Fold this sequence. Notes:
The structure holds two protein chains of two kinds.
Chain A: H1 13-21, H2 25-33, H3 35-57, H4 63-73, H5 90-96, H6 102-116, H7 121-136, H8 141-148, H9 151-154, H10 160-174, H11 179-195, H12 198-213, H13 218-234, H14 237-243, H15 245-252, H16 257-265, H17 267-291, H18 296-304, H19 306-311, H20 315-334, H21 339-348, H22 352-373, H23 378-386, H24 388-395, H25 398-412, H26 417-450, H27 456-473, H28 475-488, H29 495-512, H30 514-528, H31 534-547, H32 553-568, H33 573-585
Chain B: H1 3-6, H2 10-15, H3 17-27, E1 31-32, H4 59-69, H5 83-102, H6 111-123, E2 144-145, H7 148-163, H8 169-172, H9 178-186, H10 193-209, H11 214-232, H12 238-250, H13 258-268, H14 281-294, H15 299-308, H16 315-331, H17 334-352, H18 357-364, H19 370-378, H20 380-397, H21 401-417, H22 419-460
Parallel strand pairs in B: 1-2
Helix pairs in contact in B: 4-5, 4-6, 5-7, 6-7, 7-10, 9-11, 10-12, 12-14, 14-16, 15-17, 16-18, 17-18, 17-20, 18-21, 19-20, 20-21, 20-22, 21-22
Amino acid sequence: MAGADGDDSLYPIAVLIDELRNEDVQLRLNSIKKLSTIALALGVERTRTELLPFLTDTIYDEDEVLLALAEQLGNFTMLVGGPEYVHCLLPPLESLATVEETVVRDKAVESLRKISHEHSPVDLEVHFEPLVKRLASGDWFTSRTSACGLFSVCYPRVSSTVKAEIRQHFRNLCSDDTPMVRRAAASKLGEFAKVLELEYVKSDIISLFTALASDEQDSVRLLAVEACVSIATLLPQEDLETLVMPTLRQAAEDKSWRVRYMVADKFSELQKAVGPEITKNDLVPAFQNLLKDCEAEVRAAAANKVKEFCENLPEDSRETIIMTHILPCVKELVSDTNQHVKSALASVIMGLSTILGKDNTIEHLLPLFLAQLKDECPEVRLNIISNLDCVNEVIGIRQLSQSLLPAIVELAEDAKWRVRLAIIEYMPLLAGQLGVEFFDEKLNSLCMAWLVDHVYAIREAATCNLTKLVEKFGAEWAQNTIVPKVLGMANDPNYLHRMTTLFCINALSEACGQEITTKHMLPVVLKMSNDQVANVRFNVAKSLQKIGPVLDSNCLQAEVKPVLEKLAADQDIDVKYFAQEAVSVLALA
Amino acid sequence: MSSAATAPPSVDKVDGFSRKSVRKAKQKRAQSSSQFRSQDKPIELVQLPLLKDVSAQEQPELFLKKLQQCCTLFDFMDTLSDLKMKEYKRSTLNELVDYVTVSRGYLTEQTYPEVVKMVSYNIFRTLPPSDSNEFDPEEDEPTLEASWPHLQLVYEFFIRFLESQEFQPSIAKKYIDQKFVLQLLELFDSEDPRERDCLKTVLHRIYGKFLGLRAFIRKQINNIFLGFVYETEHFNGVAELLEILGSIINGFALPLKAEHKQFLVKVLLPLHSARSLSLFHAQLAYCIVQFLEKDPTLTEPVIRGLLKFWPKTCSQKEVMFLGELEEILDVIEPTQFVKIQEPLFKQISRCVSSPHFQVAERALYYWNNEYIMSLIEENSSVILPIMFASLYRISKEHWNPAISALIYNVLKAFMEMNSALFDELAATYKSDRQREKKKEKDREDLWRKLEELELRRGIQNSDGIIPT
Lengths: 589, 468
């Protein structure tokens, strides 16, 4: 069909367009995803004169197809003939930037931003900027929303008259009467400020910032908080107090918790942007208020920032500020009524010890850690345990081990398997910090108990945990403490436990080395090939395949091969399959 | 065969650690209220005499005083504070409700700002955070507004005030303005269904009495819906707003303004794509059908819109769409039907062959609808070829016997309707399938060739004429 006209070099566009028009969405989608192939087949000229007009005209389609199209067009520059012709891509992308569906529009804007850089300054003014203007004054909110994302890419490369127009358009959109557009403008305010000349930042951006920050809708106000970070970074220190701080103070006390939440969430960035002096005078009290906020969401967001905030305090007054202003609030949060707040705090609180040093940690922080280790909510305890390394560096973990152990044991036996899973994941870390002696004495039995947990995920994690422990403590330790117990389970009446033996062997053989594997593990595996449960037997085959590389070739030929041959003749189809697979992988055939 | 499958399955269900348990634990609270910086000091209100105990001349002034007292807000999250004063405010509000219901001549000009102020102080507030980001209105209990004992009476009072015979919109419009309405609309996001119900009545009254606010209200509802569909996917009061719109649409004058048509196509239809459609589908479908009864020429864009937003993976939603479509077909005009029948029946044919039996069943029920049947019969020469392949294939292989039986009936109906065409389609079924397969193969060939070309071009990296 392609060569129907006798000339294979030119595929008839009709055939290709037929594909793009196919009734089946999936097929249309497939063709759109290969749009670059189609363009390649057509060559640059026909792509420009036939394909692009077709795409521009038939832009009504499923959003999924449009999304793919919007993405493709961002990479089309070479296919239309290079930067010289890149503006040909603007019409279809302009239509895509006005559709309803947000993901499509966003993708179109992303592609437009991308190809904007490929425009020459002249083309930018002749083709690109008029498009931005059209979008910015579109009837329906979608096009105005899209325009917001395009100002900053063309602003730096156009003449000053055009620049003035762009600023005017941006101003208009900041006071648009649909909140969706104001939100879009507010979210691009910081980005736009970055490309503006400082004088316009001071004159234009600040007034827009102030207006958006007191918008009637909190969804707009909170976006202004984000912009605040970029704006504050751009301004010289002496202007911050008058231009930014009044608005920021107001945001930290906003009547909507969403806005206060945003302030809390962006606190570290804000702190860096406004510098040490303002931090000391303004942000410290603001942070205290956020930590005491009436909404748990806000407190949790602030609690998350405690460590970062303290870290970034000016060194000369850091300790005093923490001890007199922050720590009292932190102490209260330890017994907060909301578990998300406590858990957020628990995930960072350990980090304070490095900042405050050994003595303060022992005197002030340790009681808090201990209290959180006994918290009723498992997530809080887990967060403490997962950050033990910070404390270990400062005061050594021994200080905590008395309280640690009951907490670990309790988590290890928690009724929720995800909690058990989480604590298993910290075992290697704990083992490293507590040392082999402590481990053998207190924790080893837990690790073994997990191997027979009734949830598979736990048994699996426990197996993996053993490998990491062996890597830490060495093969000899493994042979004395772990291997006997693991091998003992091979005789367990429960076939799931017998399989755990196999899984452990799979995981451990490499870390334990050839000698232990051949002497201790292999005999057990081979014996299990007579198990009455087929699942065990095919796992024997899988295990043999797995540990084969660790064994020497004599042993493979003499011991492994006969067993696999026997299994390959098993009556169970899965056993056969895996035995045959093992035979071929180990090249024993 | 894997041991994961043999682990006790019940454990997973009991657990649900991730969010569920967090949510459940928090649900003990089940009430919330967001008051930023409420005062710490105990509140003292001077006990005023009852309105009925003072003379008629003194009543207006006392009424105003009571309104002012009711501007005081209490912290209901603290169940122990200010108990006496909370009770006093409650009884005062009760008294005010009775007063505006039965009294005459109380509505002087200066009462309007005071009433609106009292209502604003009480109801306008930042709604508290939802208990969980994944709040699922179908599964979870809503968080109730803690201050409801007072709030309910404030709403009640306001509704009686708006409904009062003495109420004059011309005076009230100075106070019940755009800003007021905007704040009112934001409250529809309240998780408390009792509050949303009151708001519905309030907004309805305002829409009815303030002609100057109507366009504004519609525009703001548009904004809420658009934000809901394209930005947040979260707004608790969609059903209530749609219910109000249902009666608004009912009152639209003919011919419909462009603004209203745009609302239908650009706002109401996209609402079908929301994940939580089931929560407001009945109200939405009602609005859509209202539009079509007003102006049948909208049928085509509406059905095309539904087809565009047709659910791809959610069978439950698909069933809802089929239900709505049937409601539309019930009122469709035969001339409109003809315009849309092809894309429509292509979709129905996909539904009929859905492996989800509820979807297939819902679609097959169309054949029990007499009016739809008559439309199909009139156009059987178009519809039968579209439907035939799916029906024929599925009649042999659907896993659900009930579906097979329904399909059999549908095929029988078609056979009776147009036996000549039916026989012809049955005869060419095989060759048609083969032709389709051939077409598919051709397509694959084409793409393979194109890909080879791309590879070669990649190697050569030249942009001359494509080599053969």
